[in-house]
Amino acid sequence: MTTSFRIEHDSMGDLKVPADALWGAQTQRAVDNFPKSGLVMPRAFIGALALVKQARQFWEERQPHAPAQGVRIRTWGARD
Asked: What global pTM score does this model have?
């Protein structure tokens, strides 16, 4: 358990966040208020979501207004 903290600020005020945490006040509020359930998303759901993202990229690549660089970056992300 972390014994050192840092103070993060957001619109709701100050909040102690573990010093080694890679998040800020809003995520810490979620961690404090919503306990982990142990439930995980099924791999099939994650795969289906990736497929939807790939389909969107396929469509976007064929649109005349799509900036080429943005489409390439998002397509790369959807494949991973």
From this structure: 0.46
**CA distances to 18, 47, 75 from 80, in Å:** 30, 10, 9
In terms of DSSP bridges, do strands 5-10 and 13-18 run parallel, antiparallel, or are they unpaired?
antiparallel
* pLDDT score at 69: 60
User: Of 12, 30, 11, 13, which Cα lies nearest the Cα of 21?
Assistant: 30
Cα 62 from Cα 4, distance rounded (Å): 52
Whether 2 and 9 have beta carbons less than 8 Å apart is answered as no
Let me know whether 50 and 34 are in one domain: no
User: Which residues in 1-80 belong to E strands, given as ranges?
Assistant: 5-10, 13-18
**Bridge partners, residue 18, by sequence:** 5
User: Can you give the residue range of the structural domain that contains 19?
Assistant: 1-38
